Amino acid sequence: MSAPEGGPTAQRIRLDPDPTAAAHYSPGFRIGDLVIVSGQAALAPDGTTVGEGDFDAQAAQVFANLRRVLEAAGSGLDQVVKVTIYLTDMANFPRIVELRAEHFSEPWPADTIVEVRALARPELQLEIEAIALAGGRLVA
Protein backbone atom coordinates (compact mmCIF):
# COMPACT_ATOMS: atom_id res chain seq x y z
CA MET A 1 0.00 0.00 0.00
CA SER A 2 1.44 3.38 -0.94
CA ALA A 3 1.03 6.67 0.89
CA PRO A 4 -1.60 9.02 -0.46
CA GLU A 5 -0.29 11.81 -2.66
CA GLY A 6 1.03 14.54 -0.39
CA GLY A 7 0.91 12.25 2.67
CA PRO A 8 3.64 12.05 5.28
CA THR A 9 7.08 10.79 4.33
CA ALA A 10 9.23 8.72 6.69
CA GLN A 11 12.91 9.39 6.04
CA ARG A 12 15.34 6.75 7.33
CA ILE A 13 18.05 8.14 9.60
CA ARG A 14 21.45 7.22 8.19
CA LEU A 15 24.63 6.63 10.17
CA ASP A 16 28.15 5.91 8.93
CA PRO A 17 29.21 3.46 10.13
CA ASP A 18 25.79 1.99 10.86
CA PRO A 19 25.85 -0.70 13.56
CA THR A 20 22.22 -1.60 12.80
CA ALA A 21 22.82 -2.66 9.19
CA ALA A 22 23.97 -6.20 10.01
CA ALA A 23 20.81 -6.81 12.08
CA HIS A 24 18.50 -5.47 9.32
CA TYR A 25 16.81 -2.59 11.12
CA SER A 26 17.02 1.20 10.97
CA PRO A 27 18.47 3.50 13.63
CA GLY A 28 15.26 5.50 13.31
CA PHE A 29 13.03 7.59 11.10
CA ARG A 30 12.18 11.25 10.77
CA ILE A 31 8.57 11.97 9.88
CA GLY A 32 8.13 15.70 9.45
CA ASP A 33 9.29 17.23 12.73
CA LEU A 34 9.01 13.92 14.63
CA VAL A 35 11.98 11.60 15.16
CA ILE A 36 11.49 7.97 16.20
CA VAL A 37 14.69 6.28 17.41
CA SER A 38 15.22 2.53 17.67
CA GLY A 39 16.44 1.15 20.95
CA GLN A 40 20.05 2.15 21.55
CA ALA A 41 22.33 -0.25 23.41
CA ALA A 42 25.97 -0.15 24.51
CA LEU A 43 27.35 -0.84 21.05
CA ALA A 44 30.29 0.97 19.49
CA PRO A 45 29.84 2.19 15.90
CA ASP A 46 31.59 -1.00 14.73
CA GLY A 47 28.97 -3.11 16.53
CA THR A 48 31.13 -4.35 19.40
CA THR A 49 29.83 -4.23 22.97
CA VAL A 50 31.11 -1.42 25.19
CA GLY A 51 31.49 -1.73 28.97
CA GLU A 52 30.72 -5.37 29.57
CA GLY A 53 29.88 -5.71 33.28
CA ASP A 54 29.99 -1.91 33.83
CA PHE A 55 26.56 -0.25 33.97
CA ASP A 56 27.92 3.32 33.90
CA ALA A 57 30.14 2.62 30.87
CA GLN A 58 27.22 1.01 29.07
CA ALA A 59 24.92 3.91 29.95
CA ALA A 60 27.47 6.43 28.65
CA GLN A 61 27.60 4.57 25.33
CA VAL A 62 23.80 4.29 25.14
CA PHE A 63 23.36 8.04 25.63
CA ALA A 64 26.16 8.76 23.12
CA ASN A 65 24.41 6.51 20.58
CA LEU A 66 21.05 8.14 21.26
CA ARG A 67 22.62 11.58 20.79
CA ARG A 68 24.30 10.44 17.54
CA VAL A 69 21.04 9.21 16.00
CA LEU A 70 19.09 12.28 17.11
CA GLU A 71 21.72 14.65 15.72
CA ALA A 72 21.75 12.75 12.41
CA ALA A 73 18.03 13.51 12.23
CA GLY A 74 18.45 17.21 13.07
CA SER A 75 17.38 16.83 16.69
CA GLY A 76 19.06 16.40 20.08
CA LEU A 77 18.63 15.12 23.61
CA ASP A 78 16.98 18.44 24.54
CA GLN A 79 14.19 17.64 22.05
CA VAL A 80 13.24 14.21 23.44
CA VAL A 81 9.56 13.95 24.38
CA LYS A 82 9.35 10.22 25.24
CA VAL A 83 11.78 7.49 26.24
CA THR A 84 11.36 3.83 27.00
CA ILE A 85 14.20 2.43 29.07
CA TYR A 86 14.80 -1.30 29.33
CA LEU A 87 16.90 -2.52 32.28
CA THR A 88 18.01 -6.09 32.91
CA ASP A 89 18.25 -5.32 36.65
CA MET A 90 16.01 -2.86 38.54
CA ALA A 91 18.84 -2.44 41.04
CA ASN A 92 20.09 0.10 38.45
CA PHE A 93 16.86 2.12 38.67
CA PRO A 94 18.28 4.81 41.02
CA ARG A 95 21.29 5.26 38.73
CA ILE A 96 19.18 5.60 35.58
CA VAL A 97 17.10 8.27 37.36
CA GLU A 98 20.35 10.20 38.01
CA LEU A 99 21.44 9.74 34.39
CA ARG A 100 18.09 11.02 33.07
CA ALA A 101 18.70 14.22 35.04
CA GLU A 102 22.19 14.51 33.51
CA HIS A 103 21.12 13.96 29.90
CA PHE A 104 17.59 15.41 29.73
CA SER A 105 16.19 18.71 30.94
CA GLU A 106 12.85 20.27 31.82
CA PRO A 107 10.27 19.77 30.66
CA TRP A 108 11.27 16.16 31.30
CA PRO A 109 10.40 13.59 28.65
CA ALA A 110 7.56 11.18 29.23
CA ASP A 111 9.19 8.00 30.44
CA THR A 112 8.61 4.29 30.86
CA ILE A 113 11.14 2.05 32.58
CA VAL A 114 10.76 -1.71 32.49
CA GLU A 115 12.85 -4.63 33.62
CA VAL A 116 13.46 -7.29 31.01
CA ARG A 117 15.00 -10.72 31.33
CA ALA A 118 17.52 -10.07 28.55
CA LEU A 119 18.39 -7.81 25.64
CA ALA A 120 19.78 -8.71 22.20
CA ARG A 121 23.12 -9.77 23.70
CA PRO A 122 23.49 -11.33 27.15
CA GLU A 123 26.10 -8.77 28.27
CA LEU A 124 23.86 -5.75 27.58
CA GLN A 125 22.32 -4.15 30.67
CA LEU A 126 20.15 -1.38 29.23
CA GLU A 127 18.58 -0.08 26.06
CA ILE A 128 16.80 3.22 25.41
CA GLU A 129 14.40 4.08 22.61
CA ALA A 130 13.12 7.61 22.08
CA ILE A 131 10.72 9.92 20.31
CA ALA A 132 11.85 13.52 19.78
CA LEU A 133 11.04 16.70 17.95
CA ALA A 134 13.25 18.10 15.22
CA GLY A 135 13.08 21.83 14.74
CA GLY A 136 10.30 22.34 17.28
CA ARG A 137 10.41 23.42 20.89
CA LEU A 138 9.24 21.86 24.12
CA VAL A 139 7.01 23.93 26.37
CA ALA A 140 6.60 23.27 30.10
Automatic annotation (TrEMBL):
Pfam families associated with the record: Ribonuc_L-PSP
UniProt GO MF annotations: deaminase activity
Gene Ontology CC, one term: cytosol
InterPro entries in the record: RutC-like_sf (IPR035959), YjgF/YER057c/UK114 (IPR006175)
Protein name in the entry: Unannotated protein
Source species of the chain: freshwater metagenome
